[in-house]
Write a structure and sequence with these properties.
Layout (H helix, E strand, L loop, with lengths): L5 H14 L14 H14 L6 E5 L3 H6 L12 H7 L2 H6 L1 E2 L2 E2 L2 E5 L3 E5 H7 L7 H13 L5 E4 L6 H13 L17 H15 L12 H9 L3 E6 L3 H5 L8 E4 L11 E2 L3 E5 L6 H11 L2 H11 L2 E2 L8 H6 L3 H9 L1 E2 L7 H16 L5 H16 L2
Parallel strand pairs: 6-7, 9-12
Antiparallel strand pairs: 1-10, 2-3, 4-10, 4-11, 5-7, 5-8
Helix pairs in contact: 8-9, 16-17
Length: about 375
């Protein structure tokens, strides 16, 4: 939910071309479906003579593109300390493969918990920190007739399911794939507990039965209708909900977690990398440097309402005046968790989605589903 369109980039493109008469920057319009965008890049790279000099990438594409030698290593172009001081750690890690940097962060993203402040106040509750507290508050508010549903999340079989699940998995202290050792953790007790929690929200009536068909927009609209107390979603929801009937009656916080464990926000940033086959590497780097100027990124955030990758912009006076929630958003997206940075990520995600869907819809038990997912993932990775 955070790709920038060519139309949104057009003002910056015009400014760049005016200030760089020796370079002609052309931004190619792409489909709205990010999977189709990835396919376009892949097809052009496989042909060996890509028309693209720069690639605007989702974080989960970086390992695949880097492993295939389709991107230039940018590690020597920027000081590591400067990089870490300037950008969110999750966005740096998301653009890194085998200790080499392949992109510069442009915008950030992270999953979080939205909650109704007015409903919690009526029920006499503080915002939950643990899974147990979320379930308890949901059930009590339902019993009091204050809400129809307690908790909304993305349960449809698609990439959003993997992104949502990795936050629950982190909250139970589990892991999906250790990218350094290829160890798979999907059949460990923590992973089974994570699936049990999601399945329980359905069987206990905390989440609607149809949640297994919901993506981001279905959950956002239902939350904005005022019938739900908790929602897991991305930052894009905040400005939209602020114009809805629940405006002024909701807030955000990091995702809940098991007692004694830590929460995690799935990193979903986008960045720019230089295509390995480009005939204009110096010009491509000049474009990246321009897009990463604070004033240019500020203009981009004002135009799109998306989340900055630069740490300083979360407290930027101009941005905070337009988006007052940015300072509260910083500790959420700073506490990021990555989807496995492995070259076979797309296949691994497909495996997880299939088995998770089977567990969530009740056609398999969480334990059997996760054992199947782990076995197939190990086969994929050759471990």
């Amino acid at each position: 939910m955070s790709a920038i369109t060519a139309t949104q980039l057009e003002p910056i493109q015009i400014d760049f071309n005016k200030s760089h008469p020796n370079i002609n920057l052309e931004i190619v319009k792409a489909p709205n479906d990010t999977n189709l965008v990835e396919d376009l890049y892949t097809s052009s790279f496989l042909l060996g003579d890509s028309p693209y000099d720069l690639a605007y990438m989702d974080t989960v594409w970086v390992p695949k593109f880097a492993a295939a030698n389709w991107l230039q290593d940018l590690s020597e172009k920027i000081d590591k300390q400067q990089l870490e001081e300037t950008y969110l750690s999750g966005d740096i890690e998301g653009g890194t493969y085998k200790n080499k940097l392949y992109w510069m962060p442009l915008i950030s993203n992270g999953g979080m918990l939205y909650y109704r402040t007015d409903l919690l106040k009526k029920g006499g509750f503080e915002p939950p920190n643990t899974f147990e507290e979320l379930i308890k508050i949901s059930q009590e508010l339902q019993q009091q007739g204050l809400v129809e549903w307690g908790y909304l999340w993305q349960g449809k079989q698609y990439e959003g399911l993997s992104a949502m699940f990795i936050e629950i998995l982190k909250g139970y202290g589990g892991f999906w794939v250790n990218s350094e050792t290829n160890e798979v953790g999907l059949d460990r007790p923590e992973a089974i507990e994570a699936v049990d929690f999601l399945r329980t929200t359905i069987t206990a009536g905390i989440s609607p039965p149809g949640v297994t068909t919901y993506a981001e927009e279905e959950t956002r609209r239902l939350f904005q209708s005022g019938k739900t107390v908790f929602l897991r979603n991305w930052p894009y929801v905040y400005p939209l909900a602020s114009k809805s009937e629940i405006a002024g009656n909701f807030a955000i916080k990091p995702m809940v977690h098991a007692s004694g464990k830590e929460s995690g926000a799935c990193s979903g940033g986008w960045g720019l990398g230089i295509v390995k086959s480009t005939k204009h590497p110096e010009e491509a780097w000049e474009v990246i440097q321009y897009f990463n100027k604070p004033e240019v990124q500020r203009k981009l955030i004002l135009e799109t309402g998306l989340v900055p990758a630069r740490k300083s912009l979360f407290n930027d006076k101009i941005l905070v005046a337009e988006f007052p929630y940015l300072p509260n958003l910083f500790p959420v997206v700073e506490n990021s968790v990555l989807r496995p940075p492995i070259a076979q990520y797309a296949q691994a995600s497909d495996i997880l989605q299939r088995y998770l869907s089977a567990a969530l819809t009740g056609s398999r038990t969480p334990e059997l589903a996760m054992k199947g997912a782990a076995a197939e993932t190990r086969a994929l990775l050759g471990t």
